[in-house]
Amino acid sequence: MLRTVRERDVRWIELQFTDLEGRLRSVILPAKRLSTESFSRGFGKLDGSSVKGFKSIEESDLVLVPIPETFAILPWSYDGGTTARFISKIYDTYGGGRFIKDPRYIAERALSLAKNEGYIPYFGPEVEFFIFDHVSVDMSRPYFSSSYKIISCEAPWNGKAPVLRFKEGYYPASPHDRVLKIRQEAARILEDYFNIPIDSHHHEVATAGQSEINIMFNDIVRAADAVMTLKYVVKSVAAKYGMIATFMPKPLYGDNGSGLHTNISLFSTSKGENLFYDPNDEYAELSQLGRYFIGGLLDHARALAAIVAPTVNSYKRLVPGYEAPVYIVWSRANRSACVRVPVYHRGDKNKRVEFRSPDPSSNPYLAFSAILAAGLDGIRRRIDPGDPIDEDVYKMSPERRTALGIKELPGSLKEAIEELESDNEFLRPIFPKELIETYIDMKRKEWMELNMYVTPAEIYKYIDI
């Protein structure tokens, strides 16, 4: 690696890490500072008190240690010089060990726990996002005025035909797919420069540049690394074209929001076989172990929401009628279900469970770890998920849903936080108690802050009351 840095004349190294909210952060150092010792000693370049939820000011020093397997030479340059990036582990200088609030450390703990129980967890993320031409926001005078404006060359309000109508954006071919070049370039860069295999990419259902890039299965840690790298690359490529990519769950009124549908399989550490696959199961070729895993997801779905759908905006996506899950049920091939078991071909040994609640505003290290913790709890406790629901749950009468015992996901971040407060023991084998408490406190403050703002829609609705 050091030889490559010299031969490619790398001028800078960018050390990246993810904060608790799921935002990517970085510091850039001269490449000449990189040595073999760097991968054990690291760089004392992080003020933990300046990162929300990390450290208090009196004990703020943290160390960034580059992870060799995340090394990538960037295809773009900020100043004409070549830059290489590393994702970093965070170490606590006071205790000397790993910093317990490092989100990647949580995913590493999750992987270690699963392996100790005989499983290798594989995750295949489906990342949805929007690519807009321009977004303007005015919050300079929130006491009496606030506004935003979204400009998109595809959108019906753009006024330039042809447009993609609301809910009609699924799989349009070029030239109607006007963000194809950004998606294609991002996918190529992910494969060629970051060694992240892409399963597919396409335009999604919503208008205004909604897109999806699917990442091939990998272990839980590398899958989360891949999601953070994908966000970084997509935003960078969009910016190159003077556009903005956003992973906000619900930026548009009246059209679909963006999800982070998460496909999970457990493989045996001893035999290397998919433990979710059972060819003798007539319904979905799903094993009993897979059913228990689903049982854990459904049992903890309301608490999981605070981690996998972690923003106030997330709950504007989780409403009926927009292909986002609202009801806590499972099924095969039913996209109104919270948990789906895809059945495209019988005899497919790559059996997986798709959890549809997460959205791309979530921190993938925390979200994937929490999903795994819930599923493993279901296996340990042999939680029966009940009968699958193969009807469109959105069209059921309230009386029928009640008769079937169908519960709903939380309707707000506040409700989700309260669920996580009362149901977090299943996380404890992976998540330190201090991290859970910090996360709940951060999210409660976030909800309280945003709940106080008056929106234009409220003025429109209530000004004449």
Reconstruct the topology from this structure.
Layout: H1 2-7, E1 10-18, E2 24-30, H2 38-41, E3 43-47, E4 61-66, E5 72-73, E6 82-92, H3 103-116, E7 119-132, E8 134-141, E9 145-151, H4 180-194, E10 198-203, E11 210-215, E12 218-219, H5 220-240, E13 244-246, E14 260-268, H6 288-299, H7 301-308, H8 314-317, E15 327-331, E16 337-340, E17 353-355, H9 364-380, H10 398-403, H11 413-422, H12 433-451, H13 456-462
Parallel strand pairs: 1-6, 15-16
Antiparallel strand pairs: 1-2, 3-4, 4-6, 5-6, 7-11, 7-12, 7-13, 7-14, 8-9, 10-11, 14-17, 16-17
Helix pairs in contact: 3-5, 3-9, 4-5, 5-9, 6-9, 7-9, 7-11, 11-12
**Share in helix:** 25-40%
Q: Quaternary status of these chains? A: single chain
Tell me, rounded to a whole number, the average pLDDT: 94
Q: Output the CATH homologous superfamily of the largest domain.
A: Glutamine synthetase/guanido kinase, catalytic domain
Please write the string of helix (H) and strand (E) elements.
Answer: HEEHEEEEHEEEHEEEHEEHHHEEEHHHHH
Count of helix runs: 13
Distance between the termini: 67 Å
Largest sheet: 9 strands, mixed
CATH class of the largest domain: Alpha Beta
Shape: globular
The number of domains: 2
Unreliable spans: none
What radius of gyration results from the CA coordinates?
22 Å
By DSSP, the count of extended strands is: 17
CATH architectural type of the largest domain? 2-Layer Sandwich
